[in-house]
Amino acid sequence: MPELPEVEFARKQLSRWLKNAKIVRAEVVDARILDAKVKGIAIEKSLTGRLVKSVERRGKWLRIVLDKGKIFSHFGMTGKWVLAENDKPVRFEKIRLDIVQGQGKKKFSVSYADPRLFGRFVVAEKDLDAWSSLGPDPLNDGIDADALHLKLMRRSLPIKPTLLDQKVLAGIGNIQATEALFFARIDPRRPSNQLSRKETGAIVKGIEKSLRETLALQKGPKLTYVEEAGAENQFTIYGHGDEPCPNCGTPLKKIALAGRGTVFCPRDQK
């Protein structure tokens, strides 16, 4: 499932592929990826001939800035951008962009693929509210522990779902919140407004550690999600319910919290 580290990896890839390049052809392969009432042919016309100025990320969103307009891409649960090879169809392909670089000397295509169709692909003149309303990005902005603590004091929800609120911190999802709370030794069920300033500081350090370690996992040429078939789960406790805690050996407990699966150590996380 794509969260901040995976989308940052995708940003770096897209930046290498697209920056200062020209979109010579755009194809909406599956219009279901577009917002309601948006026509595929209109998107194709608006993107053809555009120059890519930059590829940016905030939270789980990508913003591809063009010489006229912007592309906003959100991966949902299973989306990703890939290089298309030899004009062959890409499995689960929704969008294809034909690109030229260096005065037409290098030609290739990039495709957005999304098996479960929970992602979004939006072309707009101005920033989307979904982009503008995001909270601080831990990687781009850093995390102000005092400001975060003030936010937590205004919320009575358990800390785990609070961290998933993109207006609190942009880019933190189920994996990062699970890992960070384990590193901080905080029970995910604890009410947010009952955490001390010291405990908030521990959560900040846990988030930073989790992001740093997850970013280091993406080393190959292709973006890989832990849920994909054959993928290795290298996370410390995410997806390891009922296995021994790596710290104390106590069986890790898996529960549903605010509709999301949550793994934690009932002994170490208080």
Task: Explain the overall architecture.
Helix 1 crosses helix 7, helix 4 crosses helix 7 and helix 6 crosses helix 7. A hairpin with a 3-residue loop joins strand 3 and strand 4. The protein is 27% helix and 23% strand. By secondary structure, the protein is of the alpha+beta class.
Give the SSE map.
Elements lengths: L3 H15 L3 E7 L11 H8 L4 E7 L2 E6 L3 E5 L5 E5 L8 E9 L4 E8 L6 E5 L4 H4 L12 H9 L5 H6 L9 H11 L12 H21 L35 E5 L2 E5 L6
Antiparallel strand pairs: 1-6, 2-3, 3-4, 4-8, 5-7, 6-7, 9-10
Helix pairs in contact: 1-7, 4-7, 6-7
Provide the helix percentage: 25-40%
What is the strand arrangement across the widest sheet? Answer: 1-6-7-5
User: How are helices and strands ordered from N to C?
Assistant: HEHEEEEEEEHHHHHEE
Largest sheet: 4 strands, antiparallel
Strand content: 15-25%
What's the alpha carbon Rg, rounded to whole Å? 20 Å
Mean pLDDT: 96
Counting helices, strands and paired strands, the structural category is alpha+beta
Terminal Cα separation, in Å? 27 Å
Query: Which blocks of ≥5 consecutive residues have pLDDT under 50?
Result: none
